[in-house]
Amino acid sequence: MAGMIDKVKGMFGNGDKLNNIVFIVFDSCRWDAYKAAHTPNLDRIGLAEQRYSYASWTSPSHYTFLMGMVPHCSPKGVFASNVYRDEFAQWSTRLNLPEVEFGKFVPQLSLPHFLKAAGYWTEGWVSLPVLNPMTSMSQHFDKYELAPSHNDISQIFDKLSFRDDKPSFFFINTGETHYPYILPGETADDLPHISGVHGVFKHLDDFLKNPSEFMEDKKNDEFFSPDQFKAFYDKQVVCVEHLDRVVGKFLERCPKNTYFMVMSDHGELFGEDGYFGHGPIFHEKVFEVFFLEGRRP
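RE: above sequence
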């Protein structure tokens, strides 16, 4: 590992700096909703392409991200090992490090561990409690926090500071595009509370002690109507456009050697074939995601 650190120091000494990495996940944002949005600021970074998630819900997708993997292209007629190899090789460009020692990635298989060893400051901010700092997600980060709000990426950006002494890796999960698809200052009091895995665990003991009471409370809940599904889809598009504006403002204060990676962790179902949401669902729309990357324009 010392060889990599010496190499990094040498690059700084030559004025050829490693890139800062800003890795942003729009939670639950499906591909066609992103594509329908007007995203002039994100387009300056790179044009988004349709890719596919390795999982249908938040936690496993983020574990994959922290292995250095991003949504894949699902190519045919090739061995999976070749796909992994070609994708990992992209980190050389992302980091601005021509000779990445990928052998140093094992056995941890951890992107933050790898980057820390290469001289990076590693910092994570997550909006969904299933990714909270008490989980193993936080391992190997210098700093890892639950965001002040689940749907306000601007509060996360306000807390980020680029360092003069080392490059930074910022890993960000934001929930504006996650149900109930609300922007900062909005409420969703008229919508049912739908728990994810974290919320289910929190209330599971109470349910198991008295399931009949729980079912009584829920028996009047109705599945969403086609009009509500359409409204949810349209609102996710609005949330993407909001995020585009906030990211655009953040771009203005990023150093020139900042490399962005922006994507969704999985898609969302808005009534197609009787499905809503994501998680225990096998449907193409829950695996279709957007992905873009590029150096700060």
